[in-house]
Amino acid sequence: MARGRFLLELKKILGGTDFFRWIGFGVLVGIISGLGAVAFIYLLEWLKFFVLKELAGYQFTHPVGEHIVHLTSQTPLRRWVLFLVPAVGGLICGFIVYTFVPEAEGDGTNAMVDAFHNKGGFIRGRVPILKGITSIITLGTGGSAGREGPISQIGAGFGSFVAQKLKLSARQHRILVLAGTAGGLGAIFRAPLGAALTAVEVIYSEDFESEAIVPAVISSVVAYSLFTFVYGHQPIFFVPKVVSRNPVELIFYGILGLACVPLGMIYVRMFLGARDQFFVRFPVRPHFRPMLGGFMVGAIAMIVPQVLSGGYGTMQQAVLAQIPLKLLILCCIFKTVATSITLPSGSSGGVFGP
């Protein structure tokens, strides 16, 4: 009774004009999404430390702006553990996903878009929690995936949860889903305006949800502010000052852009091919497919351990010119393969970071 009265009063407080009501909704969803992002990163970094550093002895690096766990580990590299831990993580993730929350399979964006268009924005309350847990397990045990897709679905789930508790209409429900998506992305990306624009356009091929812009921006800014209050305002990557003195350099930037086109096409086609042609047809229960993918990723990691998890530390080393050319080429090839194994097999994670 008390909780129902609280929700009723909260709805009255936020129920003035449309403008002020959406400001209130945006702030509320932003707070929840921001706290969710803080917890997600904190738990992920500690699991990576215990599994990959303490257990496997892989001394992975961090981007300068995300060095949360400052402990050191003296464990020597155990390649056989690197081979096994992604499979163990895949087994746990597969059991949770295919038993309790099939919406958490893969990057989660398709499930969020489906909820927006076909389910009135409704997302089950268990989805953001279990999506967070399964993504932390996947990344923390070395699965090759990103955290942007998971946090967008987690934020969307929180937005749906708020809409359900306040008994909002389907239209308002959808808008809060996008506000939650923006909040999660704004915190993780540390780019609140870019995240808000991404959230309102990702649900369409050639349009965007204009009504959601105000609550999405507010939610994203609030979530970003909470996240940076906890972890600091420094950028994720440290980029040395670069001075361009010769216009001829632009030619090489153009060549680099052209080279990225076929690489991106290969990445997408390999990802979709593994999902639609290999793992779906593999004669094993879906619960065990992520474990199979984990064994494959573990086999790659025994040769190129840099493919494990999100890879932001390796990107920081590349920015600082601390990686030899041969290793860069190997990462380019095998990171594509590892990601095209991890997520299509049914593990939970994102596709952007890799």
- Order of helix and strand elements from N to C terminus: HHHHHHHHHHHHH
Strand content: under 5%
Shape: globular
Distance between the termini: 47 Å
Largest pleated sheet: none
Summing up helix and strand content along with how strands pair, one would put the structural category as mainly alpha
Q: What is the residue-mean pLDDT, rounded to a whole number?
A: 86
Low-confidence stretches: none
Strand tally: 0
| Number of contiguous helices | 13
Q: What's the helical proportion of residues?
A: 55-70%
Gyration radius, in Å: 21 Å
Oligomer: single chain
Task: Give the helices and strands, then pairings.
Layout: H1 2-13, H2 18-55, H3 79-100, H4 109-118, H5 126-140, H6 148-165, H7 170-189, H8 192-201, H9 213-231, H10 249-279, H11 289-301, H12 312-319, H13 325-342
Helix pairs in contact: 2-5, 2-6, 2-7, 2-9, 3-5, 3-11, 5-6, 6-7, 7-8, 7-9, 8-9, 10-13, 11-13
Q: Features of this protein?
A:
globular; mainly alpha; 354 residues
Q: Overview of this structure, please?
A:
- This protein has about 350 residues and is mostly helical.
- It has 13 helices and no strands.
- Helix 2 runs parallel beside helix 5 (about 125-140), helix 3 packs antiparallel against helix 5 and helix 7 (about 170-190) packs antiparallel against helix 8 (about 190-200).
- The N and C termini lie far apart (about 45 Å).
- The model has no long low-confidence stretch (mean pLDDT about 85).
